[in-house]
Amino acid sequence: MVRYKAIIAYDGTNFHGFQKQPNGRTVQEELEKTLKKMANGQSITVFGSGRTDSGVHAVGQVIHFDYPQERPLERMRFALDTQSPEDIAVKKVEIVPEDFHARYMVHEKTYQFRVDIGKPRSPFRRHYASYYPYPLDLEKIERALPDLIGTHDFTSFCAAGSSIEDKTRTIYEATMQVNDAGDELLFTFRGNGFLYKMIRILVGTLLKIGNGRIPEDAIPEIIAKKDRNLAGPTAHPEGLYLYEVKYE
């Protein structure tokens, strides 16, 4: 068996997330169906760098799988790309050592989150940005962002249902950009890992800060209290993109 690593992108609109589940179409399931066809009926398991929830997109998700024989890299990429559904793209394929693991060897991840702040909303962004119709003071958000940088226990920004006990994570980058038209925000978060729905809760909190319903200097206290109820709401999934995964 030969272990392959691949970088893939997908439009999460019609997926119930990345990870295979009994009810609902998933990215993992579609890739495994394609690989099974390519391998003449042999079942192949796909491992991802992490889950993405229903409706969440990926620009640079990383997977690995073991294939029965070695194939030229571009031929493998082309076959997997063209035989997968049209809402999945295979961007790059490489052969890696047999001990490589897409999930357990992650060094850092980058997520981006798009917010449509146009008036009226754009119907063309409805699956690709979360709409926020209320007034925003963007300078308040800019001043609050640096408080997220560093190593913290992010319990307050973790959704219920997580089984992970250690909620300490390190955020290296937290930024916001506004597009030239002034009708879309782009948040970027880069860190060594993120908790269940953490990015969406961070964005929901920052939008509340921008709207004046949470003080702009509240993030250190929210982190310290380790209380999910103090943070903002969970932003909708369609604005979230897994942008890049890096390995040492």
From TrEMBL:
This is tRNA pseudouridine synthase A. The keyword Isomerase applies. Its EC number is 5.4.99.12. InterPro entries: PsdUridine_synth_cat_dom_sf, PsdUridine_synth_TruA, PsdUridine_synth_TruA_a/b_dom, PsdUridine_synth_TruA_C, TruA/RsuA/RluB/E/F_N. GO terms for molecular function: RNA binding; tRNA pseudouridine(38-40) synthase activity. It comes from Enterococcus thailandicus. Belongs to the tRNA pseudouridine synthase TruA family. The active site is at D53. Residues 6-104, 147-248 form the Pseudouridine synthase I TruA alpha/beta domain. GO terms for biological process: tRNA pseudouridine synthesis. It catalyses: uridine(38/39/40) in tRNA = pseudouridine(38/39/40) in tRNA. The keyword DNA-binding does not apply. HAMAP family: TruA. Keywords: Isomerase, tRNA processing. Substrate binds at Y111. Formation of pseudouridine at positions 38, 39 and 40 in the anticodon stem and loop of transfer RNAs.
